[in-house]
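User: Second chain of the day. Same drill as before.
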Amino acid sequence: MPDPKKKEQILEAASHCFAHYGFAKTTMDDISKMVGLNKASLYYYYKSKEAIFCEIIVQEKETFLYSLKKKVNAISIWHEKIQTYILEREHHFQKMVNLHKLSIKTSKQLRFQPMFRDLFNRFNIREMEMIREILDLAMETKQIQKIDTHKTAGIILCVVNGIKQQRMLLQMDNLNLGQFDFKEIEEDIRFATSLILNGLKTS
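Assistant: Same format as last time:
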């Protein structure tokens, strides 16, 4: 049976390697040397560096969502809750790609791998639910029109993700995302989200 402490040591070693070499250049050899395991033992715990990275992302995302929910719950105005959530979500993405030195090319490649697609879908559902809950409360208190809050939450996330992906598609594949200028993305996201939220308000 896998040792939970050893798994945690592997994740810590991998995080260090990703931060030092970048995700693309890190190998299973690098991780095994860092944690003090032979490759056979490392493969017993994880089949690939992508599987390790996936688990690291899950831990980072869980911690982020927990802290963000507390922050959003402390805000009283419904549209400020959603704007805060959306923008903090983008800041978290920036921190993540900077920490692991992801390039645009690597980010695109990971997006189409089944384990990362499933991970994205899983967290996307949770994020939709968080936004839907805010919209439900706003609708109950008659601050917004009667709408399908589940569908609206999905559209908000779809627009936000689409803006980011479109900007990234226009950049060179070998560009490190840490060098990417996220200011324009944030401005576009803030503008698009405001348009949607203002359109929901009761007159």
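The CA atoms of residues 66 and 105 lie 30 Å apart.

User: Great, on to the next one.
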